[in-house]
Fold this protein.
Amino acid sequence: MRKTTIYPSDKRIELDGGINTKFERSILLDNESPSCANVVFENGAVKTREGVTKQTVSGFGSGAVLDAVFNRTSSDNSQTMIAFAGGSGYYFSTNTFITIPSAQSVYTSGQNLNGTQYQDHLFIGNGGIIPYKYNGTDFTRHGIYPPVTAPTGGSNGTGALNGYYAWKVTYVNSQLVESDVSPVSDYKTITAGQATITIPVAPQSWGVASRRIYRTVTSGTTFLRVATVSDNTTTSYTDNIADASLGTTAPSDQGVPPLYSTTIYFRDRLFCNDPANPNLVWYSDLAEPYTFGASNFIRIG
């Protein structure tokens, strides 16, 4: 009776030998191949490489220069291609590039961009302008910049204030990270009353989600928290908080990143170069990529 040969045998052959071009094909091991073009190995098996697909760049507009391409991974591990061309930003969807509205004409066409990702944000700089961040929806400034104008205050009705007071304001981003304080208001005398405070509103590109108001005790110099205004649209607040009920002290070292052209994420910090001070590398606060303290630098020159 003729014996039947079964090949492969009952035992699985692991295709993990890879390519072998040193010997004749007839003497190669069962797990080796004389050619491995356009294949990948995974868990002992071999499969066709997924390859690439050519995409249209029509969404960039006619004659736009490609400045940078990034791959952004969101918190659910989905990935999106982010491209900058002609100084403007786009995201890739359904075989074309879609405009990021707040990222139009931000950069200079033809200037290279550099970026890194941390905490669901892509941080981007070109070394010439204020760096930005992108979370898949909002394209806003990387750092938390303080208000540039001082609040104003004045007496308004009967209340708990009775003395000589001044106010400051901070901005807060969507991650609850706070800026340094604004310039100080004029000191105002309030007699058994309350004060109406006019507070600054930040431009949309600053990424401000709320604001905090700080005030001195009567004739004091330390600024303590009065309240949080949970929006970036309200223009006034009525202060009727007694000195004894004021909260925490205002922040004092909430610096912004340099105008970096290179940045990298490492061990829960962002590290950035400083084109204005080439001897320094700046790093963000631990586990918080938005603020850079005054002493958060490494001297490398």
